[in-house]
Sequence to fold (600 residues):
Amino acid sequence: MTIEAERIVERFEQGGHGAFVESFDAREERMTINMGPVHPATHGVLRLLLELEGETVVRCEPIIGYLHTGMEKECEDQNWRGATTIVTRMDYLAPFFNELVYSLAVEELLECDVPPRGQYIRMLLCELNRLSSHMVWFGTQGLDMGAMSAMFYGFREREMILDFFEMVTGLRMNHQFIHPGGVWEDLPDGWDDALERILDVLPGRIAEYEDLLSYNPVFLERTKGVGVISRDEVLALAASGPIARAAGVDWDVRRDMPYDAYGELEFDVPVEDAGDVYARYQVRMVEMRESLRLLRQIADRMPDGDHKNMDPKLSPPPRPELNRSMEAVIHHFKLMTQGYTVPAGEAYRVVESPRGELGCYVVSDGGTSPYRVHVRDPSFVNLQSLPVMVEEGMIADLIASIASIDPVLGGVDR
Amino acid sequence: MPEILRLAASEWADRASSLRSEGWVATDLCGLDRLGLVGDGARFEVVVQLLHMETRRRLTVHVAAEGDPPTVPSAIGVWPAVDFPEREAYDLVGIHFDGHPNLRRIMMPDEWEGHPLRKDYGVGKVPVEFRPQPFLQIDAPGQATTSVHAAREVDHLGQPVPGDDTPARRESNWSRSGAAEGEAQE
Fold:
């Protein structure tokens, strides 16, 4: 028998269970433990160094870098077109946004326009991607709160959206579809029927989500007043996206500094004041409905015309042209081997990804490959607000808070 | 067009406070190695992205980092949000932030040498982390190393036993990592 066990038995003999419980003061025993990096509730390989007093979290330090693969460095090794294949892999639940923000930054340096149809296709894919990303969040948030079926529901509808992506881009993830100048290909025949099916089904399914969790007493108990972060803390920590909007910061890049054609569309930005996990839940649920509203407008207004900037120095010629025109062959060869050059300079562009402000800082030295690509991933910055949310709370509430930040560690570590 | 502000490191601490009182929020910070870019100025720069929510403007601030190691005062007291980004700039570009309370590597392992996003830290010049196991090596196409001989040359930890390697064997096992280490030191 170990010394500790002997002591416990001794205490039991002296006064029974009650006396033992009274004599044991959890606050005297501070414990440091590692949560993760391999833990199902950390949504990837996030490691948390926790200092606990009993079940109360005294200090929490996120430790990251387990997925670091040097993507910013790898971009410097690609040409401008090839770097989209790298950036799309950063935040793997929202790949279109990564491609979009990189393309916007490069387009600013190139000073090239995107035709209206290209802009609408980008918005179409991004809003669908926002839905699919929020569905993963819904599933994992529910799963972490013990609601297993939320996961099944969320992933069921996500499949529909991924099937649409596969139909349009050929791939379910990491599409490399949005390029500087527009999108790689036009929408395939039948895209409108496929989108109609999604738009018919999803409102009812989102109502099902609400039925599952929104009024569930266990879920309310575990999320209301949990993981609170105030408006001032959000601004100081530059947290963005649903975290900021749930704490009363009325900021959405799509509305306030519009890119693509978001200025032409109508949508509301949900704002809550509570700043807790439940407020973030509400914000994301409304965002899913608003995305559907945007998709309806995009489908109705989809303009005709080119899907990308047809400048032969930027976009490869259509395939039939290669059989007819020697110039097209030359342009194609130059673009595929060397790539296009981008004027020297720097650009910083921001889009509203499902997790918040996704920024891309691009520096060009005038050559055929990026000199420096830096991506401001919202998960990376938002993760700094985790200690504020969880300290002085219970360890079970920590799980709720991580799920409500919705970090994607591929984006955090890049 | 982006608004750009260029500052020296000595101006940064005061200027950051005044920018914050004007309502600017720091949303992002990254290190930049300008080796090879045209234009004069310091080789290393810290690039800070600021956002003004009321006027809906963005501002890019370049702070030149002089000295060896390149050093810039930390803005963590002004905007706590730059905690992780400053650690990232320290880790990947090797810029030191004076006054940062927890300036440790954030992406790379703690014992890592060098700063990967510097321009003289080339792709492919990295020492090989995990050495190839000798008994898995194939000397020439179609010709497998006999596993019996190879197995005798490594101890129970998979390390080669010293003194028991022919020049050919030594080359095939060590040339890659050895050459890479030599390059990295240059």
In short: DSSP finds four helices and eight strands in chain B. Confidence is low (pLDDT under 50) at residues 143-151, 164-186 of chain B. The interface with chain A takes residues 2, 4, 25-28, 30, 32-33, 36-38, 47, 49, 53, 56, 58, 60, 79-81, 83-85, 88, 92, 105-109, 116-117, 123 of chain B (CB under 8 Å). The longest strand of chain B covers residues 24-33.
